[in-house]
Design goal:
With 79 residues, the chain is mostly helical. The protein has 3 helices and 2 strands. Helices cover 52% and strands 8% of the residues. A two-stranded antiparallel sheet has the order 1-2. It is found in: Nucleus.
Length: 79
């Protein structure tokens, strides 16, 4: 399923490529976001991937702060 953000549509394939690229191009890599964008392909720009990264960090901080409600486990009835 694709997700929408300010940086456009991100498919599951895009997100997997993004994860892999982040593992290769760490924060000390020169031109990190250009390299990540090139590794993902699909027309993503360095600005797109940097924004996607920043949104993910924001989401993580939000979850870790306890502000995010966790869904209750679904109840399964066996009849």
């Amino acid at each position: 399923m694709a997700s929408m953000s300010a940086s456009g549509s991100w498919s599951a394939k895009d997100n997997k490529a993004f994860e892999r690229a982040l593992a290769v191009f760490d924060k000390d890599t020169p031109d990190r976001w250009s390299n990540v964008a090139q590794a993902i392909g699909g027309g993503k720009t360095p600005e797109d991937v940097k924004r996607h990264y920043e949104l993910l960090l924001r989401d993580i901080r939000h979850i870790e702060s306890g502000q995010d409600e966790k869904p209750e486990a679904p109840v399964t009835k066996w009849c």
